[in-house]
Write a structure and sequence with these properties.
- This protein is an alpha+beta fold and about 190 residues long.
- The chain has a domain of about 100 residues.
- About 20% of the residues lie in helices and about 20% in strands.
- The protein contains 4 helices and 10 strands.
- A 6-stranded antiparallel beta sheet has the order 3-4-8-7-6-5. The protein has a two-stranded parallel ribbon with strand order 1-2. Strands 9-10 form a two-stranded antiparallel sheet.
- About 20% of the residues are buried.
Amino acid sequence: MILNEQPPPKRMKNTNAPKATVNSEPGSDLLETIKGISGSVGEGLTDDELTRLLREIALPTEAGFAFLSFCGGWVTLTVPQQDLANWYPERGWIVPEKEKTAREIAIKYAFSLCEPPDISSSYRSLRGELPAPHHHLELSNRRETIVVAHPRYLKVRLVGMSQPILNVQAAGTPLALSKELLQDLSALYSA
């Protein structure tokens, strides 16, 4: 037995610890803030760990969007509460006003616009019927989808393919996104 040996200090989770602060002044760039923090931690954290870290930081909100998660180079954001009738007509895919707004955004950023279904055609409910078909909006560059706009969330790709190589897993490169992108996308979520 060693004399003077002290037991290791007990570690306690401090649930009252203040959250770290990040500039949330008007004009703060939410996407750039997330990219900066992600880049500063490097590859030492999994996407789940990075999401937890980002949730502990008082990230700014921007244009009605707030951070939800980071996964696979995508940031998922919460959106203002939406009335689904403002997105989905009785017949058709997306209401014409939303489609027009999305098309204007696509033109501004040289994206292509598509409206894929929300669920796979192989999905069936417990009763065997297909749910009412709904679609969402996707904006893509020539290589990959950059924005997924859905009435319940918004996803923006922050890390993209570094070069178009077929059948090879390329290292990701942070995308240079316009500081106006979220403000422009907020037009889809205005009442």
